[in-house]
């Protein structure tokens, strides 16, 4: 963890200390590259935590945003918003979702999903079902409801009492899941890759069994695609790898290339559960935000991003296996698409800092897992550059351990 410093390297900041910030101030970005205020250049293999998926300042999105800046930034959702309609239509054409609610973040999208599930059972089905079952190690956000849904104790510390109506069970334990279902259960919510929880890829049979169970029991299946969505895993949405269609799924992070935006998508039969006034958010789907979403999706379609990611992922995994697989410091290399976890035998916080000093930015996923999130336009050459830095860093740590 870096020490907390502000822009001027003073030890006191006017901010709440909710982040252990690295002592680097990034001031410019282009494609896979970032520059700090000292003129140092970095190869970005974290993409603002799976946000800048087209790289920094992608040309087509930038142009579209500039045009929209000249026209109109914000109007209330009490009016027609053509960009919002268009963004929603685009999202439903690239996915199995039929109706879209726009918001501003992943937590807010998951909050909307939880509310929709409750409201569907209570208003459409006329039951009092309300519980949501989630999994250990999951991450669903930082609002009170979504941190309660999150299967990690560290996000709950000091925030009691937590809202009622949530249960967490171990991943890949179908019996525990079945045992947790009652006549109060409304939905099961899960990630296809538990990204924050250590880049744990959900097993196919388990996911299929969960989808089947939801059908049998009349529960809604909510897939949290906030980190895995929009091409990151080599499909538009990670649940496509599993051949399932969720009732509800959520996106945020990468959907607008860095402009803050989120969305919840639901199946047609859920549409009537929300009525005017039942759910809202001031900034959801503004003309400016949805211009960024439209430009992001159109660019991804034109450039065949999901297919590109699938190919580049093969290249990245081949390189990782070639360079690191037999290294005793490495326990496992796993992931889906360009969401990669390298589990090490020891904490990797110092390796992150050493990477920064050598011009490579990446993050962790839990104490022992190196997480790589290159942008989805990353080149083979950039992967080679990152690989050579990473292989050196890990080799040095291996050497330290063996002498
Ligand atoms: C980041 C993330 C969230 C929370 O998104 P915010 O935009 O930070 O609220 C929720 N779920 C998953 C899987 C995430 O990766």
UniProtKB/TrEMBL annotation:
UniProt-listed SUPFAM superfamilies: PLP-dependent transferases (SSF53383)
Cellular compartments annotated: Cytoplasm
Main location: cytoplasm
Native source species: Paenibacillus crassostreae
Something else known: May also have succinyldiaminopimelate aminotransferase activity, thus carrying out the corresponding step in lysine biosynthesis.
Pathway: Amino-acid biosynthesis; L-arginine biosynthesis; N(2)-acetyl-L-ornithine from L-glutamate: step 4/4
Protein's UniProt name: Acetylornithine aminotransferase
Signal peptide limits: none
Gene3D superfamilies recorded: Aspartate Aminotransferase, domain 1 (3.90.1150.10), Type I PLP-dependent aspartate aminotransferase-like (Major domain) (3.40.640.10)
GO MF assignments: identical protein binding; N2-acetyl-L-ornithine:2-oxoglutarate 5-aminotransferase activity; pyridoxal phosphate binding
EC number, UniProt record: 2.6.1.11
Residues that hold N(2)-acetyl-L-ornithine according to the record: 142, 281
Oligomeric form and interacting partners: Homodimer.
UniProt-listed HAMAP family: ArgD_aminotrans_3
Free-text comment on the cofactor: Binds 1 pyridoxal phosphate per subunit.
Keyword Amino-acid biosynthesis: yes
NCBIfam families tied to this protein: argD, PRK01278.1, PRK02936.1
Cytoplasm as UniProt keyword: yes
Record family assignment: Belongs to the class-III pyridoxal-phosphate-dependent aminotransferase family. ArgD subfamily.
InterPro entries attached to this UniProt entry: AcOrn/SuccOrn_fam, Aminotrans_3, Aminotrans_3_PPA_site, Class-III_PLP-dep_AT, PyrdxlP-dep_Trfase, PyrdxlP-dep_Trfase_major, PyrdxlP-dep_Trfase_small
Modified-residue entries (N6-(pyridoxal phosphate)lysine), positions: 253
Short name of any one Pfam family annotated for the protein: Aminotran_3
